[in-house]
Specification:
Blueprint (H helix, E strand, L loop, with lengths): L4 E3 L4 E5 L6 E10 L2 E9 L11 E2 L12 H4 L2 H6 L10 E2 L8 E9 L9 E9 L11 E9 L5 E6 L9 E9 L5 E10 L2 H9 L1
Parallel strand pairs: 1-10
Antiparallel strand pairs: 2-12, 3-7, 3-9, 4-5, 4-8, 6-7, 8-11, 9-10, 11-12
């Protein structure tokens, strides 16, 4: 098995072209009793969302199955039993883990990414109505990239930043470089304001 690369903030790992490595798993790991949510933003060359469905998060209406009232009854039940997907189906998100726990997983098929998408940002935000929980309270935040087909772990990034008041973090991004190759970049940038701040930033 090839050596796994442990990245530091700002470092990049080349994944090659989509036809060389197509399906990858993105694990966003943490230890926390709080309600943390993993999200993905599919961005164009200007670094913004070109379609609302490219914001992959637990409340998205773009899901693995269309809403069927006969099958699901309420829309809450529909969301609880399906997962969010991007407009082109290239990114499959995670269901909402209300218990916090140890992380969430997303799946990416690079061969399905639309030509206008040049970056996929993977983020984690804290949902806490009291406003007391921040990333200072989250232990061992990490993002891991795995080859879905072989099961080989390609690279990982431990977010060892000194977070304090931040309630949202851009953990890492898949970025299309000038040669048309995908690279994973360790970002590790924190923001106050939770998920709303990330949405405002990418709109």
């Amino acid at each position: 098995m090839a050596k796994k690369f442990d990245l530091h903030k700002g470092e990049k790992f080349s994944l090659g072209k989509g036809d060389e490595l197509s399906k990858i798993r993105v694990d966003l790991n943490w230890n926390s009793g709080a309600d943390l949510d993993a999200t993905a933003f599919l961005l164009d060359e200007d670094g913004v969302l070109s379609d609302d469905a490219d914001f992959v998060y637990y409340k998205s209406n773009n899901r693995s199955e269309e809403y069927d009232r006969k099958k699901f009854g309420s829309k809450k039940n529909w969301r609880d039993n399906t997962v969010p997907v991007s407009k082109d189906g290239s990114v499959v998100g995670s269901s909402d883990d209300l218990d916090g726990g140890e992380g969430e997983t997303m799946h990416v098929d690079l061969s399905k990414v639309r030509p206008e998408i040049s970056e996929i940002a993977f983020c984690v935000s804290i949902y806490d109505e009291t406003g007391k929980t921040t990333f200072k309270d989250v232990q061992n935040p990490q993002i891991v990239i795995t080859d879905e087909e072989s099961g080989e772990e390609l690279c990982s990034y431990d977010l060892k930043e000194n977070f304090s008041s931040e309630t949202a973090v851009v953990a890492g991004s898949l970025v299309l470089n000038e040669d048309g190759d995908w690279e994973f970049e360790a970002v590790g940038k924190g923001y106050d304001g939770g998920l709303e701040t990330l949405v405002d930033m990418y709109q």
